[in-house]
Amino acid sequence: MSISVEIKDIVQEYPKPDGKGVTRVCDKISLAFDEPGINMLLGPSGCGKSTILRMMGGVRPIGVPTPTSGTVLIDGKPCDGAHDDAAMVFQRYSNRPDLTVRENVAFPFRMKLWKKKVPKAESEKRITDILAAVGLADKHDLLPAQLSGGQNQRVALARALVLRPRILLMDEPFSALDAQIRQEMQALLVKLYEMQPCLIVFVTHDVTEALTLGDRVITLSTQPARVADDFRITEPRPRSAIWARSTEAVKMEERILNILHAANPGRGELTVTV
Amino acid sequence: MSDDRSLWNPYTPLSPGLRRGLGIGSVLLVLGIWAVAAALALVGPNKLPAPWKVAEAFVYLAWDAENQRSLLLTATMWSVGRILSAFVLTLLIGIPIGVIMGASPRINAVLSPLIDPFRSAPVVALLPIMVMWFGIGESMKVVFLFIGAVVYLIPMVRDAMQAVPQSHWIAARDLGATPWESVRLAVLPMAMPRIADGVIVATSVMWTYITVAEYVNAREGLGQLIQNARRFSAMDQVFAGIIVIIALALITYQLMQMIKRKLFPWETQQ
Questions:
Q1: Do B189 and A163 make contact, defined as CB atoms within 8 angstroms?
Q2: Within-domain flag for B82
Q3: What's the whole-model pTM score?
Q4: Which SMART domains match (chain A) (predicted)?
Q5: Is the Cβ pair B190, A61 closer than 8 Å?
Q6: Domain membership flag for residue B182
């Protein structure tokens, strides 16, 4: 599978609440992704990571021109609106509370776009397969209220992956979960990625999560966000707890923390989970 | 005293038994005061009939053995029939308009100045106009009920749509829905419980307007029954009629609440 996503000189400004002047959230950010892989976008909360993710997804709900300047290219073509190459998973999963697990995963196939693209038999098979892959086959007829937070996020993940997206955009998807559930979900994501490799851009403020999952870790500074660091991790996944304590991993962690401290002393919160 | 038992704790859980007991108690107390006032003739019987007189009137209205008929049943059937017709009309027209207003700020900006003011306008004052337009027959009554209810329903449906968090609309857009599909598949289903609340309120409004609708040239109906009794100064029958309307409105309300809970069991669990 080939895929290329390039963002060039992205600047994003929002008007200040008092109407005087603007706040620059992203300052000339350029990034290129040209192969399947898990790319971690790391930075303190509110640094503009989600804004960048949204631009790649194409859906721009905010009443402000997005981006202020710069371009997003997908396979070399400018992307200026919703497109069907990308699916998104948010921290707040938005499963329909009135639909069962299976119906929620089948939800996109109620839309004209996917009805036309994927024949019924094919979509039914995909739904069954992905439900098994995320471990919800036996819970297919439960309602979201009967599931835990982690299970709900599995539904949201399945609902995105059932579309076989070439780009999967994840906006702090596991940060509301308990530490143990978060680790389970990280392991699940690695498994799903091996089954169905695609270009994943994963926004997080958790250094440990970035090191556990990423093929590449991009660190952003805050307000305005700039690319402060960008490196690759070659250690194969799943990465063990032993690797997490290795000199290599600890050095990476220190490197990230140092860069962030230098870029914005005393600002933003960044977490390290053990 | 523990906070649990403090009178001024809005979060105290009340056992169903206690709640029912207090409710029945307060109704009985008022009935008692009413009975005493009537028995001691503190208020003239032509102003306040005794509760037992009202009960007698109720029995008579429910079954008039002499003429082998139930005035109450006939009147109720007519009133319920009118409300049902207006209900169907209100739903068919009110919900789609409220939905598109809630889904589009532009459509809302166009329609809300035409609809919202009527929420606080005395719809009763429109009655003469309705009579001019629709005559004094059945259609006038149904249209009057419809107007009275729909001006409440439409803004409530609109508000229900607007109360759905934007994240649902965005999530559907991200998955490939068109903007209208996002409204239909993500926002509308989330708004349904609150839309149902609007339908329940609109129905209650119709029960309050039914008597007004039936004041004008009605041959049948609960409003007419009350109006007729008043003409003959049968205050006991007036009271009985009012109590029947209140009871029917309460039953409708409870029934609709029950249906709502059945339809949207997930609402309270969000």
A1: no
A2: yes
A3: 0.86
A4: AAA (SM00382)
A5: no
A6: yes
| pLDDT band, very low/low/confident/very high, at B260 (cuts 50, 70, 90) | very high
A91-95 long-range contacts, CB within 8 A, separation 24+: A91/A171, A91/A172, A91/A173, A91/A174, A91/A175, A91/A176, A92/A176, A92/B167, A93/A152, A93/A153, A93/A155, A93/A156, A94/A156, A94/B167, A94/B168, A94/B171, A94/B186, A95/A144, A95/A152, A95/A155, A95/A156, A95/A159
CB atoms under 10 Å from CB of A204, counted, come to: 25
Same domain, yes or no, for B248 and B157? Answer: yes
Alpha carbon of B265: minimum distance to chain A alpha carbons (Å): 8
Asked if A163 and B169 come within 8 Å (Cβ–Cβ), the reply is no
Report which of A91, A112, A92, A95 is spatially closest to residue A103, judged by C-alpha positions. A95
Confidence of residue B127 (pLDDT cuts 50, 70, 90): confident
B174 close to A (CB below 8 A): yes
Domain count, chain B: 2
Q: Which domain holds residue B38?
A: 3-42
ipTM for the predicted complex comes to 0.84
| Interface membership of B6 toward A (CB under 8 Å) | no
CATH code for the domain in which residue B153 is found? 1.10.3720.10
Size of interface A-B (CB pairs under 8 A): 66
pLDDT digits (tens, 9 = 90+) for B173-212: 888 899 999 999 999 999 999 999 999 999 999 999 998 8
The candidate with the shortest Cα–Cα distance to A105, out of A157, A55, A183, is A157
Same domain for B122 and B241?
yes
Residue to mutate among B106, B174, B263, with most A CBs inside 10 A, is B174
Is residue B198 in a domain? yes
The pLDDT, as a whole number, for residue B3 is 78
Would you call B266 and A98 a contact, using CB atoms and an 8 Å cutoff?
Answer: yes
Of residues A94, A107, A112, nearest to B178 (C-beta) = A112
- In this structure, are residues B158 and B101 in contact, taking their beta carbons and an 8 Å threshold? yes
Residue ranges and CATH numbers for the domains of chain A are 36-57+79-263 (3.40.50.300)
- Evaluate if residue A270 carries a pLDDT over 80: no
User: Which helix or strand (DSSP H or E) is residue A27 part of?
Assistant: strand A22-33
Does residue B120 sit in the same domain as residue B32? no
